[in-house]
Amino acid sequence: MDPVYMWHKDKNLYQQYRMVALGQDKNPYTTLKNVFKINYGYAGKLYFWALVDQIKKDSRFEIMQEDRLGVIFKLKEI
Question: What is the pLDDT of residue 58?
Answer without folding.
Answer: 98
